[in-house]
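Hi team,

Filling in the usual template for the complex we talked about on Friday. All components are listed, including any nucleic acid strands or ligand strings, so the model treats them as one assembly.

SUBMITTER: L.P.
PURPOSE: interface mapping
COMPONENTS: two
RESIDUES: 423
SEQUENCES:
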Amino acid sequence: MAKKILIVDDEVNITKVLASRLNASGYDSAVAYDGQEALDKVEAEKPDLIILDLMLPKIEGYRVCRLLKFDKKYQHIPIIIFTARAQPYEKTMAESVGADAYITKPFEPDILLKKIDELLYPKHEG
Amino acid sequence: MEIKDGPGEDLVKEIESLKSKCEKAQAELKATKEELEVQAWGLNKTNEAIKVLYKELENKNRELKKLDDMKNEFINTVSHELRTPLTTIREVIAQFLEGILGETTSEQKEFLRICLEDVDRLKRLIDDLLDTSKLESGKFSLVMEWVDIAGLAKGVIDSFSPRARVRNLEIKKDLPGIKLMAYADRDTIVRVFTNLIANAFKFTDTGHIEISVADKPEYIECFVSDTGKGISEEDLPKVFTKFQQFGRREDVKEKGTGLGLSIVKNIIDLHKGKIWVESKLNTGTKFTFILPKSSQG
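RESULT (copied from the run log):
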């Protein structure tokens, strides 16, 4: 079965284009447009990976990330922070809330797809 | 002793004369003193005026600095806002070209490719503006790590080879077979090579473009040279200045912002390196830069 990726972004155009790219690469996708919806969709859709924007209505991205990473039920789901905020301290922030990767917009499909692949199919160490 | 008649009179006269001289001198002294007092008062006033002016100047300076910061902040925000929709557009075009969004005819593909080229051009302009504003506001932070400069250069050169084929230009590369490590910011050094090579392409019709990376004891020396139209002697000192564009030609497809070389110089400066240019009209141009292997050294 295809792996499912939840896209969380309040910009509809980005979610559409991203979903189309992910589907073409063989993934299923689901979309949430704000932080609350993201939490609901995680429960309903059980995604294998989450692409998470930071500037979100209702509950902002960092909080969503922290809530999920502190929940035993969901902490195994890899989260990629995907944001236009490019300040160096943001990356540290993302790490501190337990994000698995941090990618800055603008969107470069190759970089994003490579990271998704790494997180979904980690190479065995040792 | 013989006492003459009158010496007393002479003495008195002399004393009188001295006295009047003394009085005159005193009066003069008083006048001078008063004049000096007036002058001192004047000077004092001038001093106060200067202080006021200085304060004003300081305020003006602060205002100007604030305005400059606001300008940079503005450019920063606008560039970000411009980039987001642009990347969406770019991705949609890319997906059409890759057939993800359905089949397109070869004619449609041709036009989509035109879109893609212009979107990329716009993206370059925005990147240049964003970088310049960051470099100027001092907000540019380098992410330093050990980077193989030779490998990095090879990557950039390879990305230009399709363009070299289309333009029928030869790319010569003189790279060492081994890794050449320097403590540097990878992305910005890629930018330096990209800007210099793109610049060489822009001004070269025939001949070749040569890129060299060489190991020196303390630093790594790189150059990008071309057999292009060259830069005149009077224009040479201005090449690294913002918004300077020499020999713009109508037939040049890729118009720049005039920011590329100023960005290159800023990046090299941040790495505590040096860059210089040699050129001869109608013969070619050579940009050489050196990077310290470790900027702390």
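MY TAKE: The radius of gyration of chain B is 36 Å. Chain B touches chain A at residues 80, 83-88, 91-92, 94-95, 98, 100-101, 123, 141, 143 (CB under 8 Å).

Thanks, L.
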